[in-house]
Amino acid sequence: MLLLRSVLFNIAFYANTIIRMIVLSPIYFLLPRKAAYRIPKAWASSNSWLMAKIVGATFEIEGMENIPDEGCIFAPKHQSAWDTFALLPYQRDPVYILKRELMWIPLFGWYVAKQKMIPVNRGARGKVMVEVMNRTKEEMNDGRQLIIYPEGTRRAPGAEPAYRYGIARIYRDVQVPVVPVVAHWGLFWGRRKLVKYPGHFKVRILPPIQPGLDPDEFYAKLIETLETESDRLLVETVEANPHLPLPPTAAKRLAELKAQATT
Questions:
Q1: pLDDT 10s digit of each residue in the chain, 263 long?
Q2: Which of 4, 61, 190, 250 is the 20 to 30 A CA-CA neighbour of 201?
Q3: What is residue 189's DSSP assignment?
Q4: Is 60:202 a contact under the CB 8 Å cutoff?
Q5: Extents of the domains making up the chain
Q6: How far apart are CA 49 and CA 43, in angstroms?
């Protein structure tokens, strides 16, 4: 049954995406950028609805009051394709720094370009990165919310952290609050996994780290905040969903946390 539901969801997800892009493109590209954002928001909401209705996976968000009214940086733990879009309905005017290859996908890349996302060559250095930073400052000055994954790529639940220093440089240069976000999406929709699992989990938006810290101090504080809360939420999520088959990284981390608690 799990496999059947997962296959049905995958079919519904891609059909929902393709049909919306084709049918709504004339409206999307004629609307001003900010008004057009309502179309991706509705798409994101519909995908989470499909996960709830077909797979039986749902989530709730804690800490919405921690999102600043002005421009800020969202710094989520990244585990799943789900977390790349599920929070879009709750973000006012987000901007992503994303790998440039995504811009080459027909229709999808055009949608992304319309929203003035910032493409980057991950192997780039020097002048290219200066241009990326200038674009980032320009968008942030317009009050947008920058979404950047501090680890750069998806990591399995419970995996050892592998943070990149780039977020500290952006924090130093743009001078806005950074909002850490944790959730264990990957327990329900794993990376490159066909099967999706039912259950309910929490997304936790943490108090922002205010601008003005030394970049090294900020970097250490962000890692400590994300990892401490991620561990706490991993325990809560697994206790609330005892049926979940745990990936080896999550099982190992839970065993380590249990051992720490008994010493």
A1: 899 999 999 999 999 999 999 999 999 999 999 999 999 999 999 999 999 999 999 999 999 999 998 889 999 999 999 999 999 999 989 998 888 888 888 888 889 999 999 888 766 666 667 777 888 888 888 888 999 999 988 999 999 999 999 899 899 998 999 999 999 999 999 988 899 999 999 999 999 999 999 999 999 999 999 999 999 999 999 999 999 999 999 999 999 999 888 87
A2: 4
A3: B
A4: yes
A5: 58-261
A6: 10
